[in-house]
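Morning, I've got a small favour to ask if you have a moment. The fold is given in discrete form, as structure tokens running alongside the sequence. I'd be grateful if you could look everything over and explain what you see. No rush at all, and the record is pasted right below.
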Amino acid sequence: MIYTAWTVLAGVGIPLIGVLNSGIARSVGNPFAATAVMFAIAVVAALGITLPLYGLPTAAQLGSAPIVSYAAGLLIGFYALSATIIIPRLGAASFISFILIAQLLTSAVVDQFGLFGMERRPVDTTKLIGLIVIVAGIAIMEIGNLRKAH
């Protein structure tokens, strides 16, 4: 139950990243600087929690992680920058709609094949139908947005 609540709370934060960071971008004049400021704050917060509880990881620990795992930093940077630039142009709901489709499809592929060391969780018919229904719902929502734009 705690992980479900935690996940919902994290989900609330996802659209707010771009919304709030676009405010910084307007103030500083560019989305790249705003994203750098956001990550500086994140580093300070992460170190503030990590140092007293766990200390810093050793070079050996860092070296034992698969090299591809470090791409996560680039991916979250790309996401945050994209949200900062795109949300003011498309709106938070449209941005998250397209993100959600990409996340669901990517997650299904990761689960199906057990990519990046994750446990294999085959995509069965029920999951596939659920994905189709979600994508169809998002498409209907976006068709409504397109009609309003014209």
